[in-house]
Amino acid sequence: MSLTVGIVGLPNVGKSTLFNSLAQRRLAETAARPFTTIDPHEAVVGVPDTHLEKLSKIIKPEETLPATVTFIDIAGLVKGAHEGEGLGNQFLGKIREVDAVVHVVRAFYDPQVVHSNLTYEMGSLNQIYEDIDIINIELELGEIAVKPTVIVLNVGEDDIKSEETQNKIIEVTEKYKIDTLAISAKIEEELIDFNESERKQYLKDMGLKGTGLERLINYAYKMLNLITFYTIKGGSEVHAWSIRKGSNALDAAATVHTDFAKGFIKAEVVNVGDLLGAGGWKEVGLKGEVRLEGKDYLVQDGDVIEFKFSI
């Protein structure tokens, strides 16, 4: 699916740091000055998927491909952006092109990092509210259509699990009626240079069960109204695909390959949980749990599908 999520916010709130963490490499420059990001960067990010991991273990394919979400790092907006302030027209134009928004808000205190609109104490609830309102007003005045949005409070490394942070999440969620997450972009970026075992140990030492990015990616997937289906190509490939909820088998076939849709005959479908429980495609077939479906079948989240088509 060619659906995108834009990362927006005021300058110097941690958007590019968060983006680099999502991309798992340092694509966007970060610095303690406004307008570090001028040209938007894009990153195609794999969706965390335990079902895919388990499928890969039992199929043992040469390649395992996750479903993906595309994130775009959009430069910081400032007050007056709708009138062209701070290259505002260019930035607003990019926001118009995305399908959902991650609104990053500064919730950390660092006197060495300039804040473009400091009225209250850095990281205070009042400052958070004012920062959110500035972006919301600019989007409204810029006539940006309302999009699915999640607010990300970028907190300090020592505040990720604090009671104060949890209270801020509750207050912001209630005030704006928008799902709100707390993430330490600094922590997430540090994890880029770690291998898997080092990452697990670091998170354990921090008292964290998983990364904030995993939660954010899953939220983005939810905002885009996407579900996942799977295909297995012999022993060579296990592939997770994203598709809009409410799509049919013909749509899913076209997602995999246009020839599958053109020559569609039928689809063999089984729930991924049933397949995993049986131990493989052959085994689940012997149990009679594989269904034959036509092109109008509504694809369900977690379907494993084998398309039958004529050339």
Quick description:
Helix content is 37%, strand content 23%. By secondary structure, it is an alpha/beta fold.
What does this structure look like?
This protein is of the alpha/beta class and 311 residues long. It is 37% helix and 23% strand. It is built from twelve helices and twelve strands. It has helices at 15-23, 50-59, 88-97, 125-141, 163-176, 185-190, 196-206, 212-223, 249-256, 258-262, 272-278, 281-286, and strands at 4-8, 41-46, 63-65, 68-73, 100-106, 149-154, 180-183, 226-233, 237-244, 264-271, 291-293, 303-309. It has a six-stranded mixed β-sheet, sandwiched between helices. Strands 3-9-8-12-10-11 form a six-stranded mixed β-sheet, with helices on both faces. The longest helix has 17 residues, at 125-141. The chain starts with a strand and ends with a strand. The model is unreliable at 26-39 (pLDDT under 50).
Low-confidence stretches: 26-39
Radius of gyration: 22 Å
* Morphology call: globular
Using DSSP, what is the number of strands? 12
Question: How much helical structure, as a percent, in the residues?
Answer: 25-40%
Write down the overall mean pLDDT.
Answer: 86
Q: Biggest sheet, in brief?
A: 6 strands, mixed
Side-by-side strand order of the widest sheet? 2-4-1-5-6-7
**H-E order:** EHEHEEHEHEHEHHHEEHHEHHEE
Structural class: alpha/beta
Q: Give the helix tally.
A: 12
What is the straight-line distance between the termini?
24 Å
Strand fraction band?
Answer: 15-25%
